[in-house]
C-alpha cells in the first residue's frame, strides 16, 4: 500500500500558456507539480494554468510549498486561483505578498454571492514554516492554513470540485517581476483520505514513540 501511494508514476496534465505537456507525479489519491519562478511572473490576462485530467471532487487537500525568492517591493506577490471546471465561475483565490509584510489574503468567488474577501492579514500573514494548505470536505466545507495555523475554517461553498490551478504575479504586463528565483510546489490529495497512508501517520507516530519509550523503560529497569 505504501509503495502504491508514494511511488511517483509519471503522467501528463495540461499546462496552459506554455506550448508543451507538463510532467507531474501522480498516484491514485495524489498529484503534484512544481512551477519555476518564471511562471509566477505572468500577468492576470495570461496566467499559467494547470488543468487536471479529472476534477478533484469534493474531498481534497492542496498543500502549497512556496520556495520563491521575491523582490523587496510591496507589489511583489503570487496569486493562486483554485478553480472549478467551466462553465462554473466558482474559485478560491490566495494572494501571498513577498515583501517584508508577508501579507496574506483569501477570497472566494461563487455564482450566488460573487467575489468576497474572507480573510486578510497585512503583517506576517503567511509563513514558510509549513505549507499553506487549502482543504475541502463535504461535511466541513473549506479550510485554509497560512503555514502555521488555521485562518479560515468550515466555510460552506455547497461543494467544490477542483478543475485547475491558475498562477500569476502581475496585475498588468508592464509591472515589474515579482520573483527572481526558486519555485512553488503543489501537492493534491483527493478522494477518501482513509485510503491514504498519510491519514494513519499520526497513529503510526504515536505507536512508534510509545513503543520506543516502553522499550527504553524496560531496558533501563533490567539494567
Give a structural overview:
The protein has 223 residues and is mostly beta strands. 14% of the residues lie in helices and 48% in strands. The protein contains two helices and 14 strands; from the N terminus they run αββββββββββββββα. The chain has helices at residues 2-6, 197-222; strands at residues 9-16, 22-26, 30-36, 48-57, 60-70, 77-83, 91-97, 104-110, 114-121, 132-137, 141-145, 150-155, 161-168, 179-190. The protein has a 14-stranded antiparallel sheet with strand order 9-8-7-6-13-4-1-2-3-14-5-10-11-12, with no helix packed on it. A hairpin with a 3-residue loop joins strand 2 (22-26) and strand 3. The chain starts with a helix and ends with a helix. 29% of the residues are buried.
Amino acid at each position: 500500500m505504501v509503495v502504491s501511494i508514494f511511488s511517483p508514476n509519471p503522467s501528463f496534465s495540461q499546462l496552459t500558456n506554455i506550448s508543451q505537456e507538463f510532467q507531474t507525479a501522480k498516484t491514485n489519491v495524489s498529484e503534484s507539480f512544481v512551477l519555476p519562478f518564471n511562471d509566477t511572473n505572468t500577468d492576470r490576462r495570461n496566467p499559467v494554468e494547470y488543468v487536471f485530467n479529472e476534477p478533484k471532487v469534493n474531498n481534497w487537500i492542496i498543500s502549497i510549498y512556496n520556495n520563491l525568492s521575491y523582490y523587496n517591493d510591496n507589489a511583489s506577490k503570487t496569486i493562486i486561483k483554485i478553480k472549478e471546471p467551466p462553465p462554473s465561475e466558482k474559485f478560491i483565490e490566495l494572494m501571498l505578498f513577498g515583501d517584508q509584510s508577508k501579507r496574506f489574503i483569501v477570497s472566494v468567488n461563487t455564482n450566488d454571492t460573487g467575489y468576497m474577501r474572507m480573510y486578510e492579514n497585512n503583517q506576517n500573514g503567511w509563513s514558510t514554516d509549513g505549507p499553506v494548505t487549502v482543504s475541502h470536505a463535504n461535511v466541513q466545507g473549506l479550510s485554509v492554513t497560512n503555514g502555521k495555523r488555521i485562518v479560515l475554517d468550515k466555510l460552506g461553498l455547497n461543494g467544490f470540485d477542483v478543475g485547475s490551478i491558475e498562477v500569476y504575479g502581475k496585475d498588468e504586463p508592464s509591472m515589474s517581476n515579482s520573483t527572481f528565483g526558486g519555485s512553488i510546489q503543489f501537492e493534491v490529495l483527493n478522494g477518501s483520505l482513509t485510503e491514504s497512508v498519510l491519514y494513519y501517520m499520526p497513529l503510526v507516530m504515536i505507536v512508534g514513540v510509545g513503543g520506543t519509550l516502553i522499550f527504553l523503560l524496560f531496558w533501563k529497569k533490567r539494567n
